[in-house]
Amino acid sequence: MEFADSSFLNALIRLRNTRPLTLRGPLPRQLRRMMEMTGALDLFDIRPTPDRAH
Hints:
Strand content: 5-15%
Structural class: alpha+beta
Number of strands: 2
Radius of gyration: 12 Å
Largest sheet: 2 strands, parallel
Helix content: 25-40%
């Protein structure tokens, strides 16, 4: 993901309000910063993406 704006964050929050939602990280820097500034970061369970075996 290269770009995320308030519309994307709104969609994530709406989706989270309808069902459990876990985000796999690391989050893009811009998205993480926007979520921190709005207080939305604490609404989500964010887990690291597991390394895949080759």
